[in-house]
Write a structure and sequence with these properties.
Elements: E1 2-6, H1 14-31, E2 36-39, H2 45-57, H3 63-82, H4 86-113, H5 118-125, H6 127-142, E3 147-150, H7 169-185, E4 189-193, E5 196-198, E6 204-206, H8 212-222, E7 227-232, E8 253-255, H9 256-264, H10 276-279, E9 285-289, E10 298-301, E11 312-325, H11 335-345, E12 352-355, E13 361-367, H12 371-381, H13 383-388, E14 393-406, H14 416-426, E15 433-436, E16 442-448, H15 452-462
Parallel strand pairs: 1-2, 1-7, 2-4, 3-4, 7-9, 8-10
Antiparallel strand pairs: 5-6, 9-10, 11-13, 11-14, 12-13, 14-16, 15-16
Helix pairs in contact: 1-3, 1-6, 2-3, 2-4, 3-4, 3-6, 4-6, 7-8, 11-12, 14-15
The protein binds adenosine-5'-diphosphate (ADP), aspartic acid and magnesium ion (MG).
Aspartic acid binds near residues 40, 194, 195 and 210.
């Protein structure tokens, strides 16, 4: 069995949706059995839905109506462009309209209450996938395929961490097997809503922004799929974000651990959790371009090919560098433990840690949205030391980014750091902090926002990544 996920731009218009249906038809014909399809919302729809909810809660009574109208128009146009059967198209338009009416009522209550809980936000955000899945399934039927919309709330069981829920695997597996396998066995393509799931009690949750990739691998794992194919708008996983480095190249293959590092440190092409459900089971993932389906894309498997040395360079922005510094920290055991204990208590995750060898300071990086919670919590933890002057201050430097250089081939090769930091220094870029992951797959540095793009380009060029076989 193959699980295929189509992202927002792949289902962004009726024409694109018709293209998705053609790809599904082609795969069904070639393999003799239908794929399981996972879809994102049409591009931009999730953002629009969220904007409707936040403006409503802020007392704006107009925006959500306008957004509702736009969404209705956009989906109606898509249906006109990809659903040929008139009767079928009419029924679908009515269904979409009733979902959007319900959305409008929901926004009206958010407006009236002036309150938006994470749970309410999930219900609103998840509507985009529920709309697009219906249109995609209808487009497939228009092309003579058998297809059925499946709400992921029926099959992906999660905890109740709204906005960023985690799937519960045994429960999910049981439901996926029960609901999806019988459809595929009778030749029906299940078209599953990405991004969403539900708690054991059936309350809708979302798995985090951009998480339809993760939905696909959760299903892939639960179905013991042969492979998971992520269809997107670029040719595969590239050596850098093509919007930053115009010479970025598509990687023919990459290992699970390398791609996990790349996505964790900002390569938007895959959600950071994508690899986790499939890597331990050895299920390969392919990243493919839905507009150029003949291209081979990137194959992600267990095997790390050591060449080229550096596979990719990524950047993650909107971070803060927190520093705890002072003369009284040297040689005092437990300072790091207490510092990270206080961060953990504030519920924030740390992206990178460094400590200078003099032990006079500890630096770590968190998302800027979390920085005040962290500074407050660390300040409380070290209240006594701050009073005594053993610690000077807990400070936060904002508008910084991590540049991560990733490649299994870097392991045990001397001189790599020299080349990386040399390339950056040559451009006059100031490095605020450095860390190397224990896997040696990843060398990361913190720079300020204004230097990110230039830094990524410098390293990309240094390792010849724009040339085939670079490194
Ligand atoms: P989808 O809607 O299909 O999920 P996304 O927009 O989430 O697509 O991800 C694809 C985009 O990720 C590409 O258009 C590209 O701009 C961006 N991107 C960032 N880093 C990389 C990378 N290393 N390789 C490929 N694409 C990347
Ligand atoms: N539509 C969701 C989002 O925009 C999920 C996804 O696209 O993967 O976050
Ligand atoms: Mg995506």
């Amino acid at each position: 069995m193959i699980v295929m996920k189509f992202g927002g731009s792949s289902v962004g218009t009726g024409e694109r949706i018709a293209n998705v249906a053609r790809i599904a038809a082609d795969v069904t014909e070639r393999r003799g059995t239908p794929p399981v399809v996972v879809v994102s919302a049409m591009s931009g729809v999730t953002d629009a839905l969220r904007r409707a909810a936040t403006t409503a809660t802020a007392g704006d009574q107009d925006t959500f109506h306008l957004i509702r109208d736009e969404l209705q128009q956009r989906h109606k146009q898509a249906i006109d462009d990809c659903v040929s059967d008139m009767e079928h198209a009419r029924a679908l338009r009515a269904e979409i309209e009733s979902l959007l009416n319900w959305f409008e009522t929901l926004c009206q209550s958010i407006y009236t209450l002036g309150e938006l809980t994470p749970r309410g936000m999930d219900v609103v955000s998840g509507l985009g996938e529920r709309l697009s899945a219906r249109v995609v399934a209808a487009a497939m039927r228009s092309q003579g395929l058998k297809a059925r919309t499946v709400e992921a709330t029926e099959i992906i069981v999660t905890d109740n961490k709204f906005g960023n829920a985690t799937p519960l695997f045994p429960e999910t597996r049981e439901r996926v097997q029960r609901r999806i396998v019988p459809l595929v066995e009778v030749g029906v393509i299940p078209v599953v809503t990405g991004f969403i799931g539900a708690t054991l009690d059936g309350v809708l949750t979302t798995l985090g922004r951009g998480s339809s990739d993760f939905s696909a691998t959760v299903l892939g794992s639960a179905l013991d799929a042969e492979e998971v194919w992520i269809w997107t708008d670029v040719d595969g996983v590239m050596t850098a974000d093509p919007r930053i480095v115009s010479q970025a190249r598509t990687l023919p293959s990459i290992s699970y651990s390398e791609v996990a590092e790349l996505s964790y440190f900002g390569a938007k092409v895959l959600h950071p959790s994508t690899i986790q459900p499939v890597s331990s089971r050895g299920i390969p993932v392919r990243v493919l371009n839905s507009l150029r389906p003949e291209n081979p894309g990137t194959l992600i498997t267990n095997d790390a090919v050591d060449e080229p040395l550096v596979k990719g360079i990524t950047a993650i922005r909107d971070l803060s560098l927190i520093t705890i510094a002072g003369p009284g920290m040297q040689g005092v055991p437990g300072v790091a433990g207490r510092a990270f204990g206080s961060v953990a208590r504030s519920g924030v995750s740390v992206l990178m840690i460094t400590q200078s060898s003099s032990e006079q300071s500890i630096c770590f990086v968190v998302r800027t949205v979390d920085h005040s919670a962290v500074v407050q919590s660390a300040g409380a933890e070290f209240e006594l030391e701050l009073m005594r002057g053993d610690i000077d201050a807990v400070t936060s430097q904002d508008e910084v980014a991590i540049i991560a250089v990733v490649g299994a081939g870097m392991r045990g090769k001397p001189g790599i750091a020299y080349h990386i930091f040399g390339a950056v220094a040559e451009r006059g870029i100031n490095i605020l902090s450095i860390a190397q992951g224990s896997s040696e797959y990843n060398l990361s540095m913190v720079v300020s926002h204004q230097d990110v793009d230039e830094g990524v380009r410098a390293i990309h060029q240094q390792f010849g990544l724009d040339r085939i076989g670079g490194g």
